[in-house]
Amino acid sequence: PRRDGGFSLMYAAGNVGSIIAPIACGYAQEEYSWAMGFGLAAVGMIAGLVIFLYGNRHFTHTRGVNKKVLRATNFLLPNWGWLLVLLVATPALITVLFWKEWSVYALIVATIIGLGVLAKIYRKAENQKQRKELGLIVTLTFFSMLFWAFAQQGGSSISLYIDRFVNRDMFGYTVPTAMFQSINAFAVMLCGVFLAWVVKESVAGNRTVRIWGKFALGLGLMSAGFCILTLSARWSAMYGHSSLPLMVLGLAVMGFAELFIDPVAMSQITRIEIPGVTGVLTGIYMLLSGAIANYLAGVIADQTSQASFDASGAINYSINAYIEVFDQITWGALACVGVVLMIWLYQALKFRNRALALES
After folding, report:
1. φ, ψ of residue 286 in degrees (nearest 5)
2. In the predicted model, is pLDDT for residue 204 greater than 80?
3. What number is the average pLDDT over the span 99-126?
4. CA–CA dist 193, 85 (Å, integer)
């Protein structure tokens, strides 16, 4: 009954590390070296793996993987052999993809495969209700992809903007740019716990209407966050640097927006009644809202890379490029809100007409 709240709480808890890591690694990089920062990040990843393995004891009641059958199954090589091959091949493949700029082709192939899997799942659906549920998930995934293409500016164009145009001095200490990444996660955790506690899943009304209402709110908050960043960039253009509180506010609003997108979409994926497809749909969702959205985010961030050299040879970055990109994202997210609100209105009217028909 409170599935959305549960996913919000899980999403919030998953951001604990996202708060600590930028602060610790950012401090290590700023005070010592990049190598120290990356080394500390590796320690954190090992700690996460240990916690994961230790936590398996809480899931002994679940079926899980049939380890005996898995160990007994060999395909050309034993299991440890394939693990070794993957450990060597994965970094080599990723290096080639970026070196040869083949990543876009890999994404195209993965997307085609994903669409093929979706078509197979659609044929597997037994009734119209299941097909509608699948259609809803696909549409939510599309808007999630657009949302994350905007949100992932946090690790690229926004971070560079903070580094170049935001006054980061606080009580005599210059805050490392990397530490700003924790603001988003802190907002997610704080607001996520609050939403999971306060928001009750109403039995009355139509769930699809509520889903689209939450998506409209999430995209609207993303637009508001970038509107604040646009104001910050215009402030930088006028006075040379923008204020730190304005930057914190914009990032916090964008973090709050996440709680109305991913938890809602993941909750809907777990509700689908087609047997055996939850894991596959989750993977497709991560492909589109993760990999493809990150690629699109890179394309958007590339528009801020305008720079020139002065007479001494020093590089000057153009604040106008950031103003333009942040402004375009503001209006782009607002356009998405308009489309989602149209879907919400259609679903609300359809539900209302159905309810009136039943009453009469």
Report:
1. -70, -35
2. no
3. 84
4. 42
pLDDT, residue 259, reads 87
Mean pLDDT of 117-121: 89
- DSSP H helices in 125-206: 128-151, 157-165, 181-198
The fold adopted by the segment(s) 3-57+101-359 is Growth Hormone; Chain: A; (1.20.1250)
List, in order, residues 6 or more apart from 140 with CB less than 8 Å away: 211, 215, 264, 265, 268
Which residues lie closer than 8 Å to 266 by C-beta, 6 or more apart? 7, 282, 285
* Candidate from 65-69, 98-102, 327-331 with smallest mean pLDDT: 65-69
Q: Which long-range contacts (CB under 8 A, 24 or more apart) does 320-324 make?
A: 320/237, 322/157, 322/161, 322/165, 322/233, 322/236, 323/230, 323/233, 323/234, 323/237
Output the pLDDT for position 216.
Answer: 95
Backbone angles phi, psi at 213, to 5 degrees: -65, -40
Q: Which two tokens stand for residue 176?
A: 């490392």
Residue 189 has pLDDT above 90, yes or no: no
4 contacts 267 by C-beta, under 8 angstroms: yes
